Amino acid sequence: MSRLPQALALAFAQLGDRRILAVLVKSLLWTLAIFAVLGVALYYGLTALFAYFGWFAATEWTVLLTLVIAFAGGWLLFRIVALAVMQFFADDVVQAVEARHYAHIAGDMRSLPLGREVKLTLRSALRALVANLLAAPVALALLFTAIGPAVVFGLVNAVLLGRELQDMVWQRHPLFEHGTRPLSAATRFALGAVVTMMLATPFLNLLAPIIGAAAAAHLVHRHMATGANP
């Protein structure tokens, strides 16, 4: 875990890399596109629901309700969608980090077939969605504490993100299939906690998936170089 600050510093330092910037732009565009599609689907879904029950709702009220639901749902879904998109572009981030810092061992890694990337992305998104939904009743029970819900969702997502970010890199290594994991539970949790806090911070949340993937690449590669958990 002592290597985490250095890994994060290296990840931030590489934000100016053209390959990293290209991934950032692509991931942001895809994330916005997904939310736009979900917003349109929500609007037409509400319109159809009102029509089915014979309720009259002026267009502006339907739009307002759509925006309210989208804003509330976006708080939960943003990190899920952003990380799912990042999972899809993980190869680009990892390869950029390898090319700059670990060219001597990058040949040991492999790119994933498109079908495998889609499968892993969907599995990751589903796992995050289910975990957050299961945590929701506990968060609601602690609503009176004000900070309770944030703590519950923060802990759940720190555990999830630490694993997902590690596997974004590790799944490209031949040893991934043998069930071994390179990072300690403490390191995974610390990485996940940092990225979770970034995802909850305006502007930083746009960079969080990139920073998390790049930092995970540094942590995994340094473990491979030393053979010990960081």
Automatic annotation (TrEMBL):
It comes from the Bacteria. It is a multi-pass membrane protein. The keyword Transport does not apply. It is found in: Membrane. It holds the Pfam family EI24. The chain crosses the membrane at residues 32-56, 63-90, 129-162, 189-220. This is EI24 domain-containing protein. InterPro entries: CysZ/EI24. Keywords: Membrane, Transmembrane, Transmembrane helix. The keyword Phosphoprotein does not apply.
